């Protein structure tokens, strides 16, 4: 069973609990008084799972690290800092439950853990198209390495997949899980889309053949704090353009009636729009409807 996510990462309570994470003045005080961390729940050794997050210095992964740390788990973040930033997790550095490892998942990793959240992969088109071969290696060899690790240590693995497995122009809206997608295997996005698709295949092959406990989360467009300003995806582009007082650029991919956002996470109303189109900021409310996602209680981040 796939779990579907479309996440609006609201500013976590972290900035309230821990202003040094965002405020340089507080950061100064923080350094003068020694490290302080957000409150972390106490778990007995038996319940304190050792959790690995690959790509944990990235946008989604760092929020996940915050959540798991505050829940009292032992968290190891592995990241090669291609798109991630040390500052996304540096508020945990030195904490007894936290470890940050500079490592590329394309290389094998030997570590003892109970759970693996495998998020390592560039996620925005400019980033994953920058080096398509590396994107493929990360999603294929990197995922094989993590599945091998999960098998060796008996860990459960969650793989962060994507709505892009349905393709840039899916033929069905919304996409049911029975829909297998419409991906161009040699298009510019193929390194990511096909990389994620074969990674899903690997997960279920390891489950069937080796009995590894796997989960696959097909994440839809997510946005929130710690996202790069120049991320290149549509929501951050809208926010940036709105902040700069510029018209919002909407590019349609198919018949003009919809973008690839499913289930009304973002619905583009008023079909018949073809090709590139610019909606001015004033027309935003009548043109776009935003909805908060309900994810049946399954959320990656708080
Ligand atoms: N954000 C979204 O809207 C979205 C949508 C669908 C799927 N996803 C998936 O969620 C995951 C996280 O996405 P994100 O938005 O946080 O992206 P991000 O770019 O902020 O984070 C990805 C992290 O992976 C790291 N990384 C990349 N290649 C690596 C490698 N070879 N070895 C180790 N670390 C590596 C990066 O440095 C970065 O820290 C990705 O797998 C992405 O495909 C995200």
From TrEMBL:
Mode of membrane association: Single-pass type II membrane protein
- Assigned EC number: 4.1.1.35
* One term of GO molecular function: UDP-glucuronate decarboxylase activity
This protein's pathway reads:
Nucleotide-sugar biosynthesis; UDP-alpha-D-xylose biosynthesis; UDP-alpha-D-xylose from UDP-alpha-D-glucuronate: step 1/1
From which residue to which does the signal peptide run? none
The answer to keyword Transit peptide applying to this record is no
Instruction: Tell me its cofactors.
Output: NAD(+)
Q: Which GO terms describe its biological process?
A: D-xylose metabolic process; UDP-D-xylose biosynthetic process
Can you say where in the cell this protein is located? Answer: Golgi apparatus, Golgi stack membrane
Q: Does the keyword Transmembrane apply?
A: yes
Belongs to which family? Belongs to the NAD(P)-dependent epimerase/dehydratase family. UDP-glucuronic acid decarboxylase subfamily.
PANTHER family, per database record: UDP-GLUCURONIC ACID DECARBOXYLASE 1 (PTHR43078:SF6), UDP-GLUCURONIC ACID DECARBOXYLASE-RELATED (PTHR43078)
**Name of the protein in question:** UDP-glucuronic acid decarboxylase 1
Natural source organism: Eptatretus burgeri
């Amino acid at each position: 069973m796939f779990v579907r996510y479309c996440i609006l990462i609201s500013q976590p309570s972290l900035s309230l609990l821990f202003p040094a994470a965002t405020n340089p003045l507080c950061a100064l005080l923080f350094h003068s008084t020694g490290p302080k961390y957000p409150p972390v729940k106490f778990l007995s050794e038996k319940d304190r799972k050792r959790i690995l997050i690959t790509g944990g210095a990235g946008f989604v992964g760092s929020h996940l690290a915050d959540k798991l740390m505050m829940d009292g788990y032992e968290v190891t973040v592995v990241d090669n800092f291609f798109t991630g930033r040390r500052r996304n997790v540096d508020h945990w550095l030195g904490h007894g439950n936290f470890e940050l490892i500079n490592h590329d998942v394309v290389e094998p990793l030997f570590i003892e853990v109970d759970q693996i959240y495998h998020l390592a992969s560039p996620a925005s088109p400019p980033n994953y198209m920058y080096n398509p071969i590396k994107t493929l290696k990360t999603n294929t060899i990197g995922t094989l390495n993590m599945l091998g690790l999960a098998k060796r240590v008996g860990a459960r693995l969650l793989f962060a997949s994507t709505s892009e497995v349905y393709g840039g122009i899916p033929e069905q809206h919304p996409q049911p899980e029975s829909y297998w997608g419409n991906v161009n295997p040699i298009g510019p996005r193929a390194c990511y889309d096909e990389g994620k698709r074969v990674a899903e295949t690997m997960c279920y092959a390891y489950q069937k053949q080796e009995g590894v406990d796997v989960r696959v989360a097909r994440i839809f467009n997510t946005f929130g704090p710690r996202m790069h300003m120049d991320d290149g995806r549509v929501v951050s582009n809208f926010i940036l353009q709105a902040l700069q007082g510029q018209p919002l650029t909407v590019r349609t991919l198919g018949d003009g009636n919809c973008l690839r956002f499913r289930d009304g996470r973002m619905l583009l109303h008023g079909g018949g729009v073809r090709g590139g189109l610019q909606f001015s900021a004033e027309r935003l409310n009548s043109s776009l409807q935003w909805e908060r996602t309900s994810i049946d209680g399954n959320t990656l981040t708080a």
